[in-house]
Fold:
Amino acid sequence: MAITRRELITGIAKVGVPAAVAVTAGAEALKAETIPVPSAAVGLLYDATICIGCKACVAACAEANDTPPDTRGDALHQAPSDLNDLTRNVIKLYKPEDGSPFSFAKRQCMHCLDPACAAGCPFQALHKDAESGVVNWIADKCIGCRYCTITCPYHIPRFQWVGFNPRVTKCELCSHRLAKGLKPGCTSVCPTGAVIFGPRPVLLLDAKQRIKDHPGRYYQNRIYGEIDNGGTQALYLSHVPFEKLGLPELGAESVPARTLRWQRRFYQYFALPALLYAGLVQVIRKNLKGHEEEAHEREKATGLRAQL
Amino acid sequence: MSEAASNIKRDPINTRWERNVPVYGFPVVNGFFLGLSALVLVAFVLSAYRELAGLGPVSGMNDAYGWGIWKTFNLMVLTALGSGAFAVGIAAWVFRRKKLHSLMRMALLTSFLAYACGLLLLGIDAGRPWNFYWIVFPWRWNMHSPLAEVAICMSIYAMIPLAVENIPPVLERLWYFDSRLRPGVERFEKKLHYFYPWIIAAAYLLPGMHQSSLGALMLLAGERVHPLWQTPWLPVLYLGAATFMSFGCVAGTTMLCCLVWKRAMDMEVLDEAARITGWLIFGWLGLRLLDIVFRGALGTAFTFDRFAGVFWLEVLLISIGGFLLFRSLRTHDRQQMFVGYLLSSFGGMIYRFSPTTLAFRPNPEALYFPAGAEILVSLGFICLGIVGFLLAVKRLAILPAPLQDWHDMASYFRFRRPYIRWTGYFKYGHFGEDEKPEAATGSD
Structure:
């Protein structure tokens, strides 16, 4: 046993010194890690105080994305109750029982600056565009693991449960329309301008101006998405608490940055696992030799072939 | 001589496991085996239907609970039970608990079967499995994703180190099967031994990585996992649970096999395993409770809801299991030891199942209960593992036994049922053709 302990300690020392160096080096690289705002970040600004709940954006979204209208509710109207495999954009109603102010809520992808779905996606099927910052789904890379439906703090990506070739449905900010110089479907039809499209900095200025113009109208005089969850490209203004619109209070740090800090540090450049591996090989080499010798002694003693 | 020796009544406490011996004298195909095979067949048919119809028609998964039991139970829970190659292996090979070497083949086999069946089901659970080919392009991996870590690391582990570690019993069978194969087998074994340290080291590094990453999966879910489970220590706790659960699985299965096929038990080995498991259990429980206390989540354990219920059930099962294991060391009561393994492993299974399912609250009205077909497929893939296990222990030298059992097996096939050739072990005599039987039987 004494040998084991000594070996273990020397083994740990052999591994530990370079490991410590690697960790500190990795940690410094991570400290500099800030969430970059894409150069041409575009986004949506939704003002819940203006929205009249006409759902024109829901129909326009389906039309723009070439999806059939979701009439599964009553087999007649396009009235999805929530996002689903045919619905990238939905208008929901928040109506409290006690008669206090109600609000409509438009739900679609927030296009986070540091998206949790893309952080979890194993083969980068969910990919944040470096320029526009739109989070796109790439069919050729998706294995259908549905981890995005678990990780997204806003519960946006939806999986198609029926069919042999299922797709993940989420708002991709009508990337195909943007490429043609058109606005996203939902913003092109909104009659009251409750949802508008534009570069993120412009939208932020606009929202701040609205807050300045109407003091006391907006909840906490705050724009949801300016810093929440590390910043999002879909921005929200509301007169009811954001949580009621399905936007949880997540703090300024993005979900992946907050939760995967150690995971990222451990696998930085794969340095730590590689060092651990080298240490393990050393220990096992030594132990294997002893074990083989014992086995061959037993072979001689019993006359039966050694079992390793 | 060997017949006389086999008549000596065995001392149940002082038998030593010295050699792995196949289970002989029992047919492979019996009612139980056929029943399991039928369930496997049902699962295969249903999974073929799933490939055509999609996940919705065969499962209870929905938008809120995107993951069903195929992932959360068959993969995340059962591979914890199948971490024996990792936990028992590290104890035996790195920490030199030499007695545990006799359990190694059991550990390697159960691990391989658990991982293989889990990964097969993962392929069926994935909605677009044809895109798995990205796994061979490392520059396409998302290296910081816990799921990529799990998927890649698990498949590599099961396909290379774990599979290679399971080759020696197969080679041994070939060696005994036909003397003409021996030079080839020996050459291959020599090559294999050359690479062994690297393979074994990988077999400890990779499970350490992916068993902890399985815990890291639910970190990204944040608040939706109940505070009793959601902690930055999830990866460590998942790995820890895998260690004591797999000890329970390996030692418990071995005990069960000894009971079923009337083998002698080596209490020195089992005591050693029980002692290690006990310490692992209480170390893990300590870490778990300390974490809950320091995060200030202890209050939620005393509210009257299903989460607190699950938590107490899990903690009680694990601690009673650990207590029974420690007690069995003093009383030498095998029943107690077996129940200890059973309870602690079951508690561990509840723990591993909780963050993804039992304690996962995507929204207040969301519900998930597996559909009938989903349960059948899940069960079928567990049965596939058991079928593989039964086949392996009856054809390969997996189960540990006293040396005398090897000689008993020899005489069984020589004298009692000489027409049975298919175990292969004694076609040419059990010492090799050119050795005299007396020389060997005289030495034990």
Notes: The mean pLDDT of chain A is 88. The two ends of chain A are 22 Å apart (CA to CA).
